Amino acid sequence: MNIREARASDAAHLARFINMAADDLPLHFWRKTVGPEGDPWALGQERAARETGNFSYRNAWLAEVDGAVGACLLGYAAEETPGPIDPDTPPIFVPLLELEALAPGSWYLNVLATYAAFRGKGLGSALLAQADAIAAASGHHSISLIAADTHQDALRLYSAKGFRQIARRPVVKGDWAVDASEWILFTKAVSAN
């Protein structure tokens, strides 16, 4: 296994991983943004290939097995002092922003996702260790993440790796078809090196 920083050329993988981690919510949003004639995946890849922004490839690391991309970690510093949520924010995103605000100053692990063919091979655990090292190197004392209540394997992994549940918010579905009913905020102290 090899863990490397993502590159702009990895944008197609990053868009898929971002979408996997959030139960098709990004794809749902990209479809609304581009309209019926647009290509939602192209928009997701464009966002991932940007030099700046939370979903930039510059905030992502990929785990490879025999040269094949198998899993992704994407994270960044959470705001030290979260401001109020913009009243124009789509309601579907409000619970996520509320939960993020409960872990100010943490290193926010936004995406941890593994392709099905690579699950059970330790990639998720290796990327969580990578997140710990990144958070420590950047001076953060905690890592936060949000997971859907339906991601049972991920929930077990997070608990096994020392994350603890802090808060929950109901999933706002609107016209987004998803089985999840709650978003769960987890935090973990950064390991001492």
Strand content: 25-35%
Through-space gap between termini: 22 Å
Q: What is the average per-residue confidence, as pLDDT, rounded to a whole number?
A: 95
Low-confidence stretches: none
Q: Biggest sheet, in brief?
A: 7 strands, mixed
Query: Structural class, judged by helices and strands?
Result: alpha+beta
Rounded Rg: 16 Å
Helix content: 25-40%
The count of strands amounts to 7
What's the overall geometry?
Answer: globular
Number of helices: 6
Strands in their spatial order, largest beta sheet = 1-2-3-4-5-7-6
Task: List the secondary-structure elements in sequence, H or E.
Answer: EHHHEEHEHEHEE
Descriptive account of the structure:
With 193 residues, the protein is of the alpha+beta class. Helix content is 32%, strand content 26%. Strands 1-2-3-4-5-7-6 form a 7-stranded mixed β-sheet, with helices on both faces. β2 (60-65) and β3 form a beta hairpin. α1 packs across α3 and α2 packs across α3 (40-48). The model has no long low-confidence stretch (mean pLDDT 95).
List the helices and strands and how they pair.
Elements: E1 2-5, H1 11-21, H2 25-34, H3 40-48, E2 60-65, E3 68-77, H4 94-100, E4 107-114, H5 123-137, E5 142-148, H6 152-160, E6 164-170, E7 182-189
Parallel strand pairs: 4-5
Antiparallel strand pairs: 1-2, 2-3, 3-4, 5-7, 6-7
